[in-house]
Every structure is written in C-alpha cells, then in structure tokens.
Design goal:
49% of the residues lie in helices and 10% in strands. It is built from 16 helices and eight strands. Strand 2, helix 3 and strand 3 form a beta-alpha-beta unit. Helix 1 packs across helix 2, helix 7 packs across helix 9 and helix 9 crosses helix 10.
C-alpha cells in the first residue's frame, strides 16, 4: 500500500486533526508498522463514541499497517474518582468488562495490545516515576492546570494534588510505550501537545498526534452557562456521556433500549447540522460508503427508500423528503444490527456487567 493511501486511511472521518501530516508521512516512510496508543479511563459503560468509534478507526489504522495499543487507565480513573474511587473495582472492571467491550467490537488481543496502566508502572518501576517527576519539573503549574481539562474538569475546579500529576503521568506513558502515534479525542489535545514539546526538548521521539472529534450526545447542543469559553462549554456538555445514559447508546444496549433512546433523540426537521441522529448516520451507518441505510415506510409517505451514501441521505433529509421519525427508525434498526456482536457477547457473559 502506498503512503498516500495509508494517510487517507488515518485521516478518515471523524478524525479532525493530525499534528502534523508531514510528520505522519515521514513516519510511514521509515516505519512499516508504527506504534499507536489510545488510553481510556475506566469510568463506566462503553458507548458508541468511546467503543464503536474507536473500533472503526483502529480497523482503518490497522489496514495502514499501524500496530494499535489500548491503555486501560486504572490509576487515572482512581485519581479522577471514577467508580467511587475504588481502585480494586476499577482494575477488575478494566481487565474484565472494559477490555471485553473492545474485543466484542472486533479488536481481539491478536490485533490490539492491551495494557493496564498500573502494570506498566510496576514493570517500569522507578524509571517511570522519574519520568513523571522530570516532566513535572519541566512544566509550570499553570500549564499543568490547563492540561487538567483532559479529566473533564475546568482549570478553576477544586483539584487534589494527585490530579495535577495526571497530565504528567499521561505524557510519561507515551514515552514509556515508545509511541509513534498518540491518538485520542480532541479533549485530550492539550496533553498530547505537552508530550510533543517535552519530547522535542529532550531530543526524543516526538509522537504524531491524531485527534478525532467528540460525537454529540443524543440530547443535542447544550450550554453549561460558563463565561470563560462558551465554545468549549458547548462541546463538553453536548458530547456523549456515560454518566448520562440517555445521552448515549451503549454498545450492549438491547434493541428496545436503542429504539427508545433514538425515538427521544434531538433531531430537528430539515436540519443536518448539530443533529446527533444524522451524525450517527454519517460516522457509523454510512461511513465511507461501506454500507447503505434502508428506510421502511408506508407508500402514502413515499414508500421504502435506500440511501447508499451520507450525501444522498443529507440531501433527502434537508429537503424534507425524509421525516425525522422515519430517519430515527431506520437509524435505530441499523445500529441494533451493527451492535449485534457486542450485545450477543455480553448476553453470553452477563457476569462482565455485574460490576458496572
């Protein structure tokens, strides 16, 4: 496969930024199988934005020859107070439910390397913690506080001391894993920029940073009311959130639950922009023209129709030829079919959900 085709695979929607594309090209020129990493806090059930999106992107990355790794960030979840701040529970969920969620989406252990963060720290011992301290020494308190927004916090939020170390720990992992490509949602951009700057300062390998956009929650655009940065507030409050079950579809939701959530989803008539149902169609159901979306409806309402591309669907919806409820019904059915492997996996292994 030629380099431009590999770059096109990495750039596929909803990737919104590569820092930098020239560095990615140089990487492919020198490495047949670049090392990739994406990390996840162990903080609850896996939904479309964290699970299915990651699986689809990593499948494209693997086609380009990239060797992916998923970091199960147990210590980060502990610091951030997830799952009640119970480290033992967090680690059990990480190695059981969370890892299995990605495996159920086709990311088997022979394709993807899974790393439990605390085990990585134990393996590296004092070298890892020395790197954390070195990064902390090279970074101002103000810069580190700005980076804590990767935890879903604001700079002005009250934080414990461990939270200030969180960005340094994440940056140190990138170095410890010898990462060529650091990948995450746009909400993790600040720590990737820190990791790149630290690497350049120390004459080490500087990772290419690849960021995908955060998918909108089913409730649509929301405002949090903060004054500091209205654009950031809108993005943070509107994204899918496992802490708000009706804002997202979990990968193992029942068919009935998927239909219920979709029926209640924000879906303004004749409007594709800031429409979470249309966004799902674009990034999951009609991604890169790999599938079609069939709408079943009575003849008096136009009869059945099948869309082979997102452009076709968008045109029909914006023109009013497709009603929101018909779109929701078709999207719910297609998502239920797409998520069938995960649903069946957890039906066969119900114990994995018991700790959630």
């Amino acid at each position: 496969m030629d380099i431009e085709t590999k770059i096109a695979l990495v750039k596929g929607a909803p990737i919104s930024e590569i820092v930098t594309e020239n560095e990615l090209r140089q990487l492919f020129e020198t490495e047949a199988h670049p090392k990739h990493y994406i990390g996840f806090e162990i903080s609850g059930k896996v939904h479309l934005g964290s699970g299915l999106l990651t699986a689809l992107l990593l499948q494209d990355f693997m086609k380009a020859g990239i060797k992916p790794a998923i970091l199960l960030a147990d210590y980060h979840a502990w610091i951030n107070g997830k799952l009640g701040g119970d480290l033992e529970r967090i680690q059990t969920v990480a190695k059981g439910y969370f890892k299995s969620a990605f495996i159920s989406l086709g990311l088997s252990e022979d394709k993807v390397k899974y790393v439990l963060a605390s085990e990585l720290y134990e393996e590296l011992g004092k070298d890892y913690w020395k790197e954390v301290l070195a990064i902390s020494k090279d970074t101002s308190i103000q810069r580190m506080l700005r980076c804590t927004t990767i935890m879903g916090r604001r700079e002005k939020d009250s934080l414990d001391c461990a939270s200030v170390l969180y960005p340094a720990m994440q940056s140190a992992e990138i170095s410890a894993l010898d990462v060529d490509i650091a990948h995450a949602g746009m909400d993790q951009r600040k720590v990737h920029m820190l990791a790149r700057e630290i690497a350049e300062k120390r004459k080490r390998k500087k990772p290419v940073a690849v960021h995908h956009r955060l998918l909108m929650g089913l409730q649509g655009p929301q405002k949090m009311g903060f004054e500091e940065n209205a654009a950031d507030d809108l993005e943070i409050s509107s994204k899918m959130s496992k802490s708000k079950p009706d804002s997202c579809i979990f990968i193992h939701d029942s068919v009935e639950e998927i239909r219920r959530k979709m029926n209640a989803a924000y879906c303004p008539e004749k409007t594709a922009e800031s429409n979470p149902v249309m966004e799902m169609c674009e990034h999951f159901l009609l991604r890169s023209g790999k599938s079609s979306l069939k709408v079943t409806r009575p003849a008096k309402f136009g009869g059945d129709v099948e869309f082979a591309s997102y452009a076709e669907l968008q045109s029909a919806y914006v023109s009013g030829k497709l009603h929101p409820m018909d779109l929701k019904g078709a999207a719910a059915q297609a998502l239920a079919e797409t998520l069938s492997p995960s649903r069946k996996y957890f039906e066969k292994n119900p114990g994995l959900l018991s700790g959630m």
